[in-house]
Amino acid sequence: MANATVDLVGIGNALVDVLVNVEDSFLNAEDLQKGGMFLVDAAQSDALYTKLSDLFPAGVEMSGGSCGNTMAGFASLGGKGAYIGKVKADQFGDAFRKGMQDQGVAFDSSPTTEGLATGKCLVLVSPDAQRTMVTFLGAATELTPDDVTEETIASGKVVYLEGYLFDQDAAKNAFIKAADLAHDAGQEVSLTLSDGFCVDRHRDAFRALVEDHVDILFANEQEILSLYQVENFDDALQQVRAHCRIACLTRSEKGSVVLSGEDVHIVDAEPVDRVVDTTGAGDLYAAGFLYGYTQGLPLATCGRIGAIASAEVISHYGARPEADLKALVAAKLDL
Amino acid sequence: MANATVDLVGIGNALVDVLVNVEDSFLNAEDLQKGGMFLVDAAQSDALYTKLSDLFPAGVEMSGGSCGNTMAGFASLGGKGAYIGKVKADQFGDAFRKGMQDQGVAFDSSPTTEGLATGKCLVLVSPDAQRTMVTFLGAATELTPDDVTEETIASGKVVYLEGYLFDQDAAKNAFIKAADLAHDAGQEVSLTLSDGFCVDRHRDAFRALVEDHVDILFANEQEILSLYQVENFDDALQQVRAHCRIACLTRSEKGSVVLSGEDVHIVDAEPVDRVVDTTGAGDLYAAGFLYGYTQGLPLATCGRIGAIASAEVISHYGARPEADLKALVAAKLDL
Predict the structure, then answer these.
(1) What is the mean pLDDT of residues B132-149?
(2) Is residue B254 less than 8 Å (CB to CB) from chain A?
(3) Does A333 touch chain B if contact means CB atoms closer than 8 Å?
(4) Yes or no: is domain B8-14+65-115+140-333 CATH 3.40.1190.20?
(5) Is 3.10.450.50 the CATH classification of the domain at A8-15+65-117+138-333?
(6) Where are the domains of chain A?
(7) Which chain B residues have a beta carbon less than 8 Å from that of A255?
(8) What 3-state class would DSSP assign to B144?
(9) Cα–Cα distance, A155 to A8 (Å, whole number)
(10) Which of A223, B135, B150, B230 has its CA 20 to 30 A from that of A281?
């Protein structure tokens, strides 16, 4: 890691988030299971977008994507990050790039000039603050192994990959290439499972990956239960302990559990006055944990930073931090 | 354990519980910190009892005491238990004995015929289902090492001790004698810390005990934080892991954590429709865990049984199970 110029290199689906408050009845009418992430094509995305515009007040549009959110949080914490992802040279693509750069994240992937438009994620926030996502991946699907360069990977300490990449073969290959390059360079590979349904779609591949390529795994309760096809959190915990060097299991208001060999830490959730929108909770937990980790802090402290970053993002609308996370963490942890 | 005729021998303060629903304002007026256990003398107990009778509807009177509740739960689960504790040969003493025997727990300690009356615990249940206890130990303070016989201890597999015994020197000596006899007979010793304030009063003694004499420790969050004088659950967890063979840490709605060497199990709380009265939650958790343990079940299953027994007792008024716990557990766990 002597050559590391950034702390974290993230690879993900580059998407613009469109956040809209909806009623539960809308989700039912559209047959969207609450809490899920649904992949749609351009036409379906446009149709839903139009319907939403008619029915609900205008939503907020901002650069997003799971890994993008993590990188923004990582930068807000004071970490140096670089992002690899694919947008088109269009209005949304420009907005995405500007959003990343404004947050202090290096983003040098060249945009596509033809093919699909920049990807878009319609984030439907229901009154109970849960989010249901309808995603058109667009240009993000055009990420290929060529976009993952040895130079960029070697510039970091840890590579962070979002599980959603597994929904596209080319992106999946980019993912594997990044993991291999990172390990060849003596660096570590972290992965978030991203979504219970995504795990369902790629269970065997994820299991193999966790066992063979991943050093640090992030998963929420639904995802880890799905990965090991068990019904009970403790059973999942026993499985993942045996298969992964470090695992961070997040459990919403129940906090998180950080496992590493014999080490086990139970990290309480950070209190939140009112949960407004849980979008980005997992992304920001990963940001906080990895910030602590790349700073060489103890695992329990890494988990605490994750909890603080996560609490900040769920206390407002949108998946990117609004507060200065570095200052927030410093105030709470006396770092 | 070849000679074991019972599974569990419990030693505790034999008390009759008087349960009364009170308003928070009453606790404030009486300067009773909610959630605590306060030791009073006969006169104070009588005065409060009279005041309660004037202000609130008549309470329920039933045999109780922390360890007594555990033994009742243990019997309801199908375990064979024996209880050692001191009552007077008076009306309440007879009621206590009958209560234990009705629940299937052997109780052969001879009553005192002079001295203090049978002990009484005024359990003040506030509207949020928390309980504050005002205890007159009475005859229970006359428990001495002579009441702990090698024969009774050797008849069991595990000895269970309540931390409240530490408030009386004679009982504390009975406690140490029981632990030594149990270990000499190749049996195991379990302890519940009982109460955060009780831990405060005897912290050094409890720490020495946990390190040197206790095989299985039960503690709730407040108690374990107090034992190690730390502010954060995870810090307490790291301490207790290093000092005790098996520790069961209960966290109310957050469930429990069972630790044993490298083994760690996170056991979710059993869902409860409505929490009516948390009195006995910890006592019944211990009952369930120890039932599973004396049956040779895996630690995670022991914790699950504890969670189920605990959920039953907090869903109604009073600290003794109303349901047939054996049937309840069988239905839920398919044992």
Answers:
(1) 92
(2) yes
(3) no
(4) yes
(5) no
(6) 8-15+65-117+138-333
(7) 254
(8) coil
(9) 9
(10) B230
Q: Which of A235, A253, A262, A266 to mutate to test the interface with B (most CBs of B within 10 A)?
A: A266
The whole-angstrom separation of Cα B235 and Cα B231 is 8
Identify the residue among B221, B233, B234 best suited for mutation to test binding to A, counting A beta carbons within 10 A and taking the highest. Answer: B234
Distance from CA of A10 to the nearest CA of B (A): 30
Backbone angles phi, psi at B13, to 5 degrees: -80, 120
Note the ipTM here.
Answer: 0.80
Answer whether residue B133 shows pLDDT above 70.
Answer: yes
Residue-level pLDDT at B20: 92
Query: Is the entire prediction scored with pTM above 0.90?
Result: no
List the alpha helices (DSSP H) in chain A: 24-29, 42-55, 66-76, 91-102, 150-154, 169-184, 196-201, 203-212, 221-228, 233-243, 281-294, 299-314, 325-333
| Residue range B199-228, pLDDT digits in tens | 999 999 999 999 989 999 999 999 999 999
Alpha-carbon span A221 to A216, nearest angstrom: 16
Which residues are registered as beta bridge partners of A21?
A125
Structure tokens at B270: 């059993």
User: Do A266 and B266 count as a contact with CB atoms less than 8 A apart?
Assistant: yes
Residues in A closer than 8 angstroms to B255, CB to CB, are 254
Stretch (H or E) spanning B54: helix B42-55
Nearest CA to A263 out of A278, A248, A277, A281 is that of A248
Residue B238 with chain A: CB contacts under 8 Å:
265, 300
For the stretch B55-106, pLDDT in tens is 887 777 888 899 999 999 999 999 999 999 999 999 889 999 999 999 999 9
